[in-house]
Design brief:
The chain is α/β, with parallel strands linked by helices and 228 residues long. 47% of the residues lie in helices and 17% in strands. The structure holds 2'-deoxycytidine-5'-monophosphate.
Length: 228
């Protein structure tokens, strides 16, 4: 009898710190496999976006819970893009500023934010044929994933990549600022009590520091049944 994965495609997860190359690699891998690409960071960025718009303090638990329960979050998977909607309004293009990045890392440490976003992500496990990218894909959201990767890179490499992206996206900042922001976010993401960033016990760990995107994708394909 065919398994679920054979019929619909595998569920593949990629976790790792900022700048390790998750998005580029996840997109490239999804495209090679003809799979959908799910960027779950977009949801945490969307929460940051609504918090900023509402002008509330994210330490105010009651205000945060009221806000989160009154907002409709929706994502739709387009080719290589996770389109993000708040109350049916698309905000995909407004989520990459340094300010939203910082605030996203802060709200991502709040357990009720993670609980609110969990079902929105977990429903994709029924579909298969997905490459899902984030920080807790293999550990919490999709513990039953078919193949799990954890992508790392040294701090210098990650700083250089993020700095290039920031400049390209019209958010000029100095390299030391980029490095500091990455270190701060890493510390937040790794040390939080709920779903901290760490490799799942059954994840394949790949260091992308001296690899091209194509080389990382080739290494990943070697772990995917029928694609080596
Ligand atoms: O991948 P990204 O930079 O777009 O993620 C934005 C923030 O959201 C990041 O600081 C960590 C957090 N995040 C998370 O905690 N869990 C996820 N599954 C995805 C992102």
């Amino acid at each position: 009898m065919e398994t679920f994965a054979q019929r619909r495609g595998f569920l593949i997860t990629i976790d790792g710190p900022a700048g390790a190359g998750k998005s580029t690699t996840a997109r490239a891998l999804a495209s090679r496999l003809g799979y959908a690409y799910l960027d779950t960071g977009a949801l945490y960025r969307a929460v940051a976006w609504v918090v900023r718009r509402a002008g509330i303090d994210c330490a105010d638990v009651e205000a945060m819970e009221t806000l989160l329960s009154s907002v409709d979050f929706h994502v739709s998977l387009d080719e290589g893009v996770t389109r993000t909607f708040i109350d049916k309004k698309e905000i995909t293009g407004q989520l990459r500023s340094p300010e939203i990045s910082r605030l996203a890392s802060t709200v991502a440490a709040l357990p009720y934010v993670r609980d609110r976003l969990l079902p929105i992500q977990a429903r994709f496990s029924r579909e298969g044929g997905i490459v899902a990218e984030g920080r807790d894909m293999g550990t919490r959201v999709f513990p039953e994933a078919d193949v799990k990767f954890f992508l790392e890179a040294d701090l210098e490499t990650r700083t250089a990549r993020r700095h290039r992206e920031a400049v390209r996206d019209g958010h000029p900042e100095t390299q030391p600022d980029t490095r500091r922001a990455i270190e701060e976010r890493d510390a937040n993401d790794r040390s939080r009590a709920t779903a901290p960033l760490k490799p799942a016990g059954d994840a394949v760990v790949i260091d992308s520091s001296s690899l091209t995107v194509e080389q990382v994708v080739e290494r990943m394909l070697a772990w995917i049944p029928g694609h080596s």
